[in-house]
Amino acid sequence: MPPEYTVTRLSTTPVKGLMLHHPDSIELTTQGAAGDRLFFLVDDEGGLQSCTRNPGLYGLSATYDAETGHLEVRRGDEVLHRGLVEEGDSVDTDMWGLRRLAGDVVADPTWGALFSDAAGRQVQLVRARGSAFDVEPVTLLGTASVAELAARAELAEVDSRRFRMLVEFEGGGPHVEDSWGGELLQVGGAVLRVRGPVKRCAATTRDPDSGVVDLQTLRMISSYRGRQESVLGPGACFGVYAEVVEPGGVAVGDRLSRVAGD
Length: 262
Fold this sequence. Notes:
- InterPro entries: MoCF_Sase_C, MOCOS_middle, Pyrv_Knase-like_insert_dom_sf.
- It holds the Pfam family MOSC_N.
- It contains three helices and 18 strands.
- It has 262 residues and is mainly beta.
- The protein folds into two domains: 142 residues, M1 Pyruvate Kinase, Domain 3, CATH 2.40.33.20; 95 residues, no CATH class.
- The strands form four sheets. It has a seven-stranded mixed beta barrel. Strands 5-4-11-10-9 form a five-stranded antiparallel beta sheet.
- Strand 6 and strand 7 form a beta hairpin.
- The longest helix has 11 residues.
- The radius of gyration is 18 Å and the shape is globular.
């Protein structure tokens, strides 16, 4: 892989399913970007909740101060709640049948009430012991792949934020990332091992700001890529997963390159 691939955007959120932040740089650990997906939501039966079936979460953004332990949730400029995160009962959550994630319910009931109102169902906020990533801690997507999707659908553009990928990059042809399976990549100061394709869900059909279903992304992807195999079964795949082999910093503008001799 020639060294002309460049990081164009990074996307993180401290609460899984809430609006994304786009920092200039991140610190990658074996659990993913430091501070990313530290918290997640579960229903009364312990089922993992995401923005796919909870459009009320759209418009909510969160920030977390690791030094003070305070979490803040906003809707636009309005602070809905800010408070110290103290852990309560432990929970064990099924991550889509692929792994179990240990966590602790946040003790302050205000958080559960806030997110229950937003989701329209009873949920609890949980602090992960690690990171609440789905399959692997890193996801990668090329801007050429997004441009190809738009072209195939005869659209001027498709907002790549709807795919909620940790690392976006430019360079190469459409879906070049699909050819990197099993390879080691140097991305800034980190080394990644690329794994399988990301099977997309209905969250990608929603506008990333409003949560309104406005684009049939799954049909669009399948119309020219077909149904592909993934760790989550066959489906509309777009982008790839990666594990972190060597932690390090990654910034917008950093290069991606294949590790020599891999």
